[in-house]
From TrEMBL:
Swiss-Prot/TrEMBL cofactor(s): [4Fe-4S] cluster
Domain HhH-GPD positions: 45-192
Keywords per UniProt: 4Fe-4S, DNA damage, DNA repair, DNA-binding, Endonuclease, Glycosidase, Hydrolase, Iron, Iron-sulfur, Lyase, Metal-binding, Nuclease
NCBIfam families recorded: nth
Protein name: Endonuclease III
Binding site for [4Fe-4S] cluster: 194, 201, 204, 210
Record note on cofactor: Binds 1 [4Fe-4S] cluster.
E.C. designation(s): 4.2.99.18
Short name of one Pfam family: HhH-GPD
Protein's gene: nth
Cited function: DNA repair enzyme that has both DNA N-glycosylase activity and AP-lyase activity. The DNA N-glycosylase activity releases various damaged pyrimidines from DNA by cleaving the N-glycosidic bond, leaving an AP (apurinic/apyrimidinic) site. The AP-lyase activity cleaves the phosphodiester bond 3' to the AP site by a beta-elimination, leaving a 3'-terminal unsaturated sugar and a product with a terminal 5'-phosphate.
SUPFAM superfamilies reported in the protein's UniProt record: DNA-glycosylase
Record organism: Enterocloster hominis
Top EC category: lyase
Amino acid sequence: MRESKKARAERVDAILARLDAEYGTEYRCYLDHETPWQLLIAVILSAQCTDARVNIVTKELFKKYRSLEDFAAAELSELEQDIHSTGFYHMKAKNIISCCKDLVEKHGGTVPRELSELTALAGVGRKTANVIRGNVYDDPSIVVDTHVKRISKKLGLTKADDPEKVEYELMEVLPKDHWILWNIHIITLGRTICTARNPKCSQCFLRELCPSAGGMKG
DNA sequence: CTCCCGATAT
DNA sequence: ATATCAGGAG
């Protein structure tokens, strides 16, 4: 049985209402930062690493490197040690130095707003670029990370496996005013209830709206 | 497609 | 021991 378009739209509205009621409608960022370029570096470091670990590392990192110029001039081996515990440290360090050099030399020390300009930076892919666009510039954008992909699929809002396809399918389903918030709400849900291992469906406030929780009939 | 890679929970 | 974590590059 395939869910009708109207039924799905109503279910999405109900899901969004419950997420808003549970988590609020104010955007919060899990990565500590004071400036856009600090957020960019934090997101680069967050690849396959918990945000809690990134925050431990950036707390000291941003004391040591106080500007984009400091990062651009960093010694590779030294920066590798500074970010070691986030994993993938060799590539991340190389990318951060290259990225910050570009920001200083080609973007006047600012973080660009366009998706194409962001993804042209070393270490910045579609997901990282969309975090910047949403959080820094309030441009409606859907961030597809591991949680968003997993939970959007479980909720039956996409069947795609490619993150970019997930992003486009979610754009069809979600109202634009919830694009930015979707990511942060789903991450919050994914860290506490709808975890990758042992999801607590019985405790989930979306269980009656979720095909994977067995809460939907027919 | 493979590789990058440490920390943590289970 | 193994799965997973605010992915991206070659």
